[in-house]
Amino acid sequence: MNQMEVLADGRPWRDYLSGLILHGVKLGLDNIRHLLAGADSPERDYPSVHVGGTNGKGSTAAFLDAMLRGAGLRVGKFTSPHLLDITERFQINGEPISEDELRENVGFFQKIARGMPHPPTFFELNTAVAFRWFSRRGVDAAVIEVGMGGRFDATNVITPAVCVITNIGLDHTQYLGGTLGEIAFEKAGILKPGVPCVAGTLAPEAAEVIAGRASAVGAPLLLPGLDYAFSTGGTPLAPLLDLQCGRFQLSGAPVGLAGAHQAGNAAVAAVAARLLPPPLGPLSRELVCAGLAGVRWPCRMERVLDGPPVYVDVAHNPDGAASLAGMLGRAVVVFAVSSDKDAAAMLATLAPIARRLVLTVYQGGRSMPLARLDELAAGIPHVTAPDLAAAIADGLDHANAETPLLVCGSVYAAGEARRILMERHGAAPPRF
Q1: How far is Cα 278 from Cα 166, in angstroms, rounded to an integer?
Q2: H helices of 168-277, where?
Q3: Domain ranges of the chain
Q4: How many CA atoms does the CB half-sphere of 142 hold within 13 Å?
Q5: pTM (2 decimals)?
Q6: Is 277 exposed, middle or buried (0-12, 13-18, 19+ CB in 10 A)?
Q7: Looking at the chain, which terminus has fewer C-beta neighbours within 10 angstroms, N or C?
Q8: Residue 379, SS3?
């Protein structure tokens, strides 16, 4: 084995990282603080934007990243999960971390972890790697996406220049609570004294909780309908954004990601960009518009093939499925979902647009078994396929110019589908 593929103890670095997944999800900040203290607190070396919420975190982070890069800044972006390779999670100006740099950073924190009473989780170590890599590479700013929740998420050791809460939906309920209010309380844990927060469209229950938390900690909170207003024009696949926030105004600004929900994410990102303090901002209208139009974020209603049209989307909960259903009149739908998701609600939402519904599984232990999916879809016309490759082949046989193929249900399914479409059907590699 190549020496560059192993850590100091001889283990392949990818095997070490994969082993950390076995520690599962452990919400709390003690581990990340220990790791970062051993690296001289690199998260303090540059200003950051913290992006939380249920859906749209990654897209909003991508909009902000594009705007800041357009201003000539060197911008780090940390997101999760990845589509094709773990290196995607760590980017500077759209370029993923190299394998050598990732191995070096993993090895650095592996040594620190040996002295910890509890081993770090996979996400905790990734978060530490991102903060240190951004520091060592001298970024001007970083856009940091919350992993899950907020209050006890490993990213919540930063004091950002601005924070964002995109929306609140029912997801990860086993960790965050079963009501919108409980989940909103966890998401609002990223609010910091004096740090402005831009929120997207919220249900009243969630808005009340977030507003209460903002008041308690002294965080200025901007809410749609009160502090800014936006509307969406254009078409579902090519949205246009109208935005009014004080004297700042956009009219018919093209949004580079498909869907009315992406115009909402774009509005939140644009308002956040205007709140950035010097030297980062506030960003001009020209830079905001260029970032909104030029953003690249794979597998967000991404059209990856043209004949017939094939779209891949990471939607993995009922709210995400509802956004998809509003974009396509009819489609051949290939669906694979994780075991812990509300598959029944997602299927009920997608069924009306599905001219043909193909249920399948993605690789790995997290996918909902096909027998369970088949059971949940009782009463909905559907077929099954043993794997994503077979499901996509079936879908392509039945799709046409008027009825595109849509692959959705999970970030992991989207990533695997993207790889299959590249390797077997000639799709171009994703662009960030």
Answers
A1: 24
A2: 173-176, 180-187, 204-217, 260-275
A3: 3-294, 302-425
A4: 33
A5: 0.94
A6: exposed
A7: N
A8: coil
Nearest to 137 by CA among 67, 78, 82: 78
Q: How far apart are CA 117 and CA 95, in angstroms?
A: 35
pLDDT digits (tens, 9 = 90+) for 66-91: 999 999 999 999 999 999 999 999 99
d(CA 290, CA 253): 9
CA distances from 316 to 323, 359, 367, 401 (A): 11, 14, 12, 26
Q: What's CA 96's distance to the chain center, in Å?
A: 16
Give the pLDDT score at 84: 94
What's the pLDDT score for residue 219? Answer: 99
- The CA–CA distances, whole Å, from 20 to 124, 202, 251, 380, 412 equal 9, 35, 47, 39, 18
Q: Under CATH, which architecture does the 3-294 domain have?
A: 3-Layer(aba) Sandwich (3.40)
pLDDT under 50 in the chain at which residues? 1-3
Short-list 23, 40, 5, CA closest to 131: 40
Nearest of 399, 432, 388 to residue 311 by alpha carbon: 399
Strands of 309-312's sheet in order across: 302-306, 309-312, 405-408, 331-335, 354-359, 383-384
Do 3-294 and 302-425 show the same overall fold?
Answer: no
∠ CA 217-222-225 to the nearest 5 degrees? 140
The strand pairing partners of 367, in sequence order, are 338
Residue with tokens 């530490």: 128
- Rounded CA-CA distance 337/334 in Å is 10
pLDDT digits (tens, 9 = 90+) for 83-142: 999 999 999 999 999 999 999 999 999 999 998 999 999 999 999 999 999 999 999 999
Q: Among candidates 55, 22, 3, which has minimal Cα distance to 313?
A: 55
User: Is 302-425 a domain of CATH 3.90.190.20?
Assistant: yes
**Cα separation values, 382 from 68, 302, 312, Å:** 45, 24, 19
**Residues 324 and 260: beta-carbon distance below 8 Å:** no
Residue 19: per-residue pLDDT: 85
Confidence (pLDDT) at 9? 65
DSSP H helices, 38-98, are: 57-70
